Amino acid sequence: MKDQAKHTNVTTKASTRAFSTMARRPAEGFTNNIDSTQMDMGALPTEEQRAKWSSEQDAARQLFINTVTEEQNSLESLNALQISDGSGEGHKFPLPELPLPRDLIKKTRYDPVVEQLTNLMMRDGCKATAQRYMAFILQTLRTSSPPKINPLRPLLPGAPPAGHLPLNPVLYLTLALDSVAPLLRLRVQKGGAGGGASLQIPVPLSLRQRRRTAFMWILDACSKRKSRGSGKNMFPAKVAEEIISIVEGRSGIWEKRNAVHKLAVTARAAVNYGQKGFRK
């Protein structure tokens, strides 16, 4: 049985594959079998189409060249204009004339009014807290509805319309402050009236002094306002409401300003007190 099994199990030689695993060989064989006489010549572009396409390509190429040339010419003319204006090479716009005007020289980061009022609100050196208060005040003025101007208590001449004030909260704040700022203050001179009686003397105020006096009045009025809530933004909310009431003519600071001016007019005879030719 073993001998019979040996004779029956005859090993055969391994055969190769009937197809190629290379992608190049079928392509080569396919191209070699193509007959050029069997191709459809109508699928190829005609001479007219080739001429049309070549002319379009030439026109597009010429348009690109013209565009680049125009841009280069414009840049050269702009550089020549800058140099002729005295601005110097490498600057897009002409340099400003020197010396600079005084209103263009900025020595502080914030507006002078904002900086002054922030310092007036500061307590115990907490500048960051005062700045947060000022930011909340300006945000409230910006998001509030336009105020209703009272014709009996007009603002400063040249003020913008009421609808434009929320667009510029710094101008809103400055306008309210300068409108109620007093022009004078009363200085008390002891014994100036004779017989030990004190004399009230009107003294003019500078711009910063006027704004400081007006804002101290605003802070005093805010301390008397009733709180409508609680939280860290309660105080700046009162200040913003008082500023809006000033612009609308509802604040009592208008009466305080008028009272100071009336007293100053009454004591106008003592304006020259202490000067040459006036009895001390």
Automatic annotation (TrEMBL):
<dbReference type="InterPro" id="IPR036823">
    <property type="entry name" value="Ribosomal_uS7_dom_sf"/>
</dbReference>
<keyword id="KW-0689">Ribosomal protein</keyword>
<dbReference type="GO" id="GO:1990904">
    <property type="term" value="C:ribonucleoprotein complex"/>
</dbReference>
<keyword id="KW-0687">Ribonucleoprotein</keyword>
<feature type="domain" description="Small ribosomal subunit protein uS7">
    <location>
        <begin position="103"/>
        <end position="268"/>
    </location>
</feature>
<dbReference type="Pfam" id="PF00177">
    <property type="entry name" value="Ribosomal_S7"/>
</dbReference>
<dbReference type="GO" id="GO:0006412">
    <property type="term" value="P:translation"/>
</dbReference>
<dbReference type="GO" id="GO:0005840">
    <property type="term" value="C:ribosome"/>
</dbReference>
<keyword id="KW-0496">Mitochondrion</keyword>
<comment type="function">
    <text>Component of the mitochondrial ribosome (mitoribosome), a dedicated translation machinery responsible for the synthesis of mitochondrial genome-encoded proteins, including at least some of the essential transmembrane subunits of the mitochondrial respiratory chain. The mitoribosomes are attached to the mitochondrial inner membrane and translation products are cotranslationally integrated into the membrane.</text>
</comment>
<dbReference type="InterPro" id="IPR000235">
    <property type="entry name" value="Ribosomal_uS7"/>
</dbReference>
<comment type="similarity">
    <text>Belongs to the universal ribosomal protein uS7 family.</text>
</comment>
<dbReference type="InterPro" id="IPR023798">
    <property type="entry name" value="Ribosomal_uS7_dom"/>
</dbReference>
<dbReference type="InterPro" id="IPR047988">
    <property type="entry name" value="Ribosomal_uS7m_fungi"/>
</dbReference>
<protein>
    <recommendedName>
        <fullName>Small ribosomal subunit protein uS7m</fullName>
    </recommendedName>
</protein>
<dbReference type="GO" id="GO:0005739">
    <property type="term" value="C:mitochondrion"/>
</dbReference>
